[in-house]
Specification:
Rossmann fold, 2 domains, five-stranded parallel beta sheet, 7 helices, 7 strands
Length: about 200
């Protein structure tokens, strides 16, 4: 993950199950990466050109909302457009600034996210996944064995993956080491990220 980001790529965090959605959102934003926490729409990667049409529409509606264009429209029309914007944001909000395919995909529960895994494999995108015993490990390039239903387990692993992405961002910018590195998060907002502190292994 760190190497992929350091080389100029980005990671797509995927977790649509209830236990994972909030954690995926939080950690992906902290690491300045992209995420999908709503339902995975078929063709999100394999038909990315078409998906970008929806993303552009979302950006257009957001611009209209920000510059007051929606407020100038009749109430019924403005309400309809805002509902459209909310729906698009639910599915595309975490990837609205993603202009190219990701360099790697991090998945919580590859069995639940089988469509995302399938699309990643078709496009030869490396897949890193928190994988429980009910999942087929042969479909994953980098397996992280663990409980993919427990929130604490998901939080622990996802935060470490986010740390690796942050390390890659720092290496890309030549900052190295710990500390802060300014990045644009998935919402396009300039934020500061800090590597999580790692506890030394027990018994050492």
């Amino acid at each position: 993950m760190s190497d992929a980001v350091a080389r100029g790529g980005h990671v797509l965090f995927v977790g649509t199950k209830r236990q994972a959605a909030d954690v995926i959102h939080e950690e992906a934003v902290r690491a300045g990466q992209f995420f999908i926490t709503g339902r995975w729409l078929g063709g999100t990667l394999t038909n990315f050109r078409t998906v970008k049409v929806g993303i552009e529409r979302l950006r257009e509606l957001e611009r209209m909302d920000e510059d007051g264009t929606l407020d100038a429209l009749p109430k019924k029309e403005a309400l309809s457009l805002r509902r459209e914007m909310e729906k698009l944001d639910k599915y595309h909000g975490g990837i609205k600034l993603m202009n190219a395919l990701p360099s790697a995909i991090f998945v919580v529960d590859p069995n639940h996210e089988h469509i995302a895994v399938s699309e990643g494999r078709k496009l030869h995108i490396p897949i890193v996944a928190l994988t429980d015993t009910n999942c087929d490990p042969n479909l994953v390039d980098f397996i992280i064995p663990g409980n993919d239903d427990a929130i604490r387990s998901i939080k622990l692993i996802t935060s470490r993956v986010a740390d690796a992405c942050i390390d890659g961002l720092q290496r890309r910018r030549g900052e190295g080491g710990g500390g802060h590195a300014p990045v644009a998060n998935a919402d396009g907002v300039q934020v500061e990220v800090q590597r999580g502190k790692r506890r030394p292994p027990r018994g050492r």
